[in-house]
Each structure stands twice: as structure tokens, then as C-alpha cells.
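Worked example

This section walks through a single chain of length 461. The input is the sequence exactly as stored; nothing has been trimmed or padded.
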Amino acid sequence: MKKIQIPEKVAYIIRNLEENGYEAYAVGGCVRDSLLGREPGDWDITTSAAPWQVKAVFPRTIDTGIQHGTVTVMLDKEGFEVTTYRIDGEYEDSRHPKNVSFTSNLKEDLARRDFTINAMAYNPGTGIVDLYGGMEDLEKKIIRCVGTPDHRFDEDALRMMRAVRFAAQLDFDVEADTARAVRKKARSLKKISAERIAAELVKLVTSPHPEKLHLAWELGITGVILPEYDQIVGVEQNTPNHIYTVDVHTLKAMENIQPDPVLRLTMLFHDLGKPAVKKTLYGRDIFYRHPEVSARMAKDILKRLKMDNATTDKVVRLVKWHGLKYDATPVHVRRALNRVGDDLFEDFIKVQRADVMAKSPSVILRKLELLDEKEKIYHEILESGQCYCIKMLAVNGRDLISEGIAPGPLLGAVLDRLTERVIDDPALNIKETLLKLAMKEKDSPDIFEPKKEFFWEETGK
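Given that input, the structure is written out below as C-alpha cells.
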């Protein structure tokens, strides 16, 4: 009998339910992960006891989903979900069963689960209960539906995304019949809420194998949830900096950065605008101002997915600035800090590094050395307290108002101009010097002109 190590509190819950005459097992992902030698994130327990019977066994419980048979058992401030064996009724919306009925049969409960590797149960006395070939599929490294794939996806269309997500997390393949059903049913993902789609997409791209997003394209999933990705598939980049198509470059860039949602989403979106701006001149492809187009697309996508404002803001800004080119000099790094923002600058460097590492091998070393030099200067700027933004000026709005500059657009324009001057020459950041400069700048005929950009975009990036 194969044994797995389960936490003492989980064993305690199982033991207490059994001592009261019920069956109880650890079930689902915790069993799968234990068999794979991974640390389970959660331990779910399934039982023949009805919810009210579970509540009678344990003194402290919370009714977290009692209508679906789930009670959370509290042990020393730690909660464990205990769910009664159940049979799902007919699904009418590709997500929710019309009704749920409880059963005393473990086999019927396991039969309703999505994939074989998630349909195994375990308790110390019985060992592994594997009625649908989950252990064999773990060995084969495949994601396969329990029962008929069409039925599983009719019940909950999001399971199609979950199949790819598990493939990405575990580096598995999707079994052939399951894959065929995904291709057939992918359009039904339109019925799934944006929030659920977004949650699965984030889990996929932050997995150890974000390149499996291409599997979602092969199965027709991205065509429904992220059609913008489909537009970059196969787009050639005939430039000195690239040897990959836009989609392959994108996947490699995601692999090159840490699995943080903001960073991975940034790399996913950073070149989506390239097909829209692509031009070919004298045999060379040009993608002029594609970061701005990509940023607008990223904003629209994240809004469509109902992503939170903080994530959206960071991703859009990083996408917008990812192509920023600037010299490895203090003045240029200070100005880059001003444009990008000090709150995102370290992530900005990570994004540029991931982007570089997904380019042609012939240019990677030179570009990484240049980026390392910029990062070194960035840290020197922080350590020495050099000014790169309005809040670091030796004067503020109140000082300028006291000198007779009225609150309003002119005040803001003068502060911006002073910041630019100090970025160019930190020695000017003295209150008296800046007050004199302010009086000159307020009368400048071009005071309301936009900031002059200091960088050039690498058109063949």
C-alpha cells in the first residue's frame, strides 16, 4: 500500500470522522502533489458524513459552502475544508450544477471531478484510492478528463483553461481525446466570467512553464479569451536584433522573468502592438512606437478581464516604457527614472533584461553589459540622493507661490521645467538658485511645451 505523508491535523480530522462511523479521505490536488513530491498548498477532505454530521463531530466549524456540502473545520486557528461526497446535477450555464445531492459512495464523488490526476483520494488506513487511472496519468505526464471530456467541459467550460494551466504547472501534455474536446468546445469559454478567466490566465503565465500559453493557442483557447495573442503568432521580425517570430520572442521573454503576475503579464503584452505598426523598408522590419500601441492594448485587455487597478496601472506603464533606450550616463538614467517612476524602475530593469535575453544571441551579451552598467548607475543615484523628480527638488509649490507664481497649470509647468534642469545638472538643486530659475522659466514662451524626449526608440527592436 502506497503511503503519503499527511499533516497531523488532517490525520486528526480523518481519524475523528472514522471513529464516528464515517468515511473520510484527503482528496484532489493535495494527493496529486504529494505523489509528485510537491508541497501541497491546501489539504481538502471528503467524507461520507453529511455537513450537519461533520458539525456534530467537531466543536468549531464554519459554514463556508454548506449548500454544496462544504464545512470548514477549525483547528488552532487553521481551517480545513471538509466536503460531503456529492453528485452534481445537470449543468445549465457551463459553470454551476442545477442542484447537488449528497451520496455515501466515494466512487460517485470522484467521478464528478475534472481530471484523473485530481480524482484520487487517500487515507492512512486504505491508502490511495485511484479509480480512474490518475497514478498512471501522473507517470505518463498527461492531463486527461475523468470520463467523457465533452461532458466535463459542458459542466464547466473553465476546465479547458485548467487543463492547460495544469500542463504548465506540471510540464505535462494534454491527452489526445481531452485536447480534441477542448478544440471542439473552446467557444463556450465566452460563458465564463472575466474574473475566472483572468484568475486562470494569471496562474498559467506565472507557472514554471508559461510557454504552454502556446498550447492554449493550439487548442483554440486564446482565440476566445485573448485574440490579441493570436495576432502575433507567426509574425516575422526581420531585424538585426531578432531571430524569433513575435510570439516565440514573447514566450521566451516570459520564461526569462520571475513568476510575478505583473512581470509575466508585462512580458505577455509587451509586443502585442507590433503587427499593427509593422512596416518593411529596404528589407528590414520596423515597429516604430509599438510600445505605446502595446500599452493601449494591454489596458483594454486588463479592463476586459476586470483586473484590479493596481495591477493594470503597473503593467500598462511597464509595457509603455519597455522599449525605452537611454545612455549609460547619470543624466540619462535620472531622466529614465523620472519618466518610468521610481516605484517601477527595478521592475523596468527586469523587464528590459528579460526582453534582451529573448533576442538574437548575437546581441544579447552587449545589451546585457550595457543594462548592467545602467543598473549600477541607478543604484549610485539612489545612494547619493540625486534629484530625479519634483518631490526631490529643493523648492516646492508653496515656495513658488510665495514668489508670485499663481497656483494652476503654470505652477506645475514651472516645477516640471525645474526638475528637468536639475536632472541635467544636480548642482542647481539649491533653493535660492531654483527660485531665480523659476522666475525666468515662468515667462518662457515654450513653458507649456511637452517634455522633450531624451531617448530614441530602436525601430528594429
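What to look for: The longest helix spans residues 361-384.
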